[in-house]
Amino acid sequence: MPYVYRGRRISVLVSRSRDGELIARTVAHFGIDSARGSSSRGGAAGLRELLRKAREGYDLAFTPDGPRGPAGIVQPGVIAAAAATGFPIVPVALAASRCRRLRSWDRFVVPLPGARVHYACGELFPVARGMDPAAAAAELARRLDGAEAEALRYAGQTAGEEET
Fold first, then answer.
1. Which of 8, 69, 106, 114 has the fewest Cβ atoms surrounding its Cβ within 10 A?
2. C-alpha pair distances (Å), 106 with each of 31, 67, 110, 125, 155
3. Crossing angle for the helix pair 76-85 and 133-155, nearest 10 degrees?
């Protein structure tokens, strides 16, 4: 993902956890800014920081299911940010041609050496102010599922494969 955003200003919401610190340092190495906060710790502060970054001209990035999940369930922060900024949501998914999945809550994918990583974007999703948050989250989840299916297809995989 960092290579897709080369030369662009982007800020990503990263958990305040120890794992989040590792992620923040990693994305900083690629020139990506991070706002710290999550649905479980400092979420409001993290969201305020992202909204400030949006006013400064940054694109925003989220892992929409948050730092603890449940996996695949869109948390309210991404919907709130889109409604507040007027930015459309771009559903993005990545899949690797060869990978291992960690035994974490989100089944995190680690590409193996020599793997090709495939990137797919779903249809832009504008969130209007006043849109029902639950309906918006359900629609975003549907679009993310579509992007994931496309990325997996490019990678020659199907959903649920453990390793290839």
1. 114
2. 25, 9, 12, 23, 19
3. 110
Positive or negative torsion for Cα 35, 60, 12, 141: positive
Q: Indicate whether this model's pTM tops 0.70.
A: yes
Residue 71 belongs to a domain: no
Torsion of CA 116, 110, 21, 16, to 10 degrees: 110
Q: Which domain range does residue 102 map to? A: 89-157
The rounded distance, in Å, linking the Cα atoms of 15 and 68 is: 10
Residue 114: inside a domain, yes or no?
yes
Sign of CA dihedral 91, 28, 108, 13: negative
Q: Scan for tokens 């995190």, then name that residue.
A: 108
Domain count, the chain: 1
pLDDT computed for residue 149 by the predictor: 94
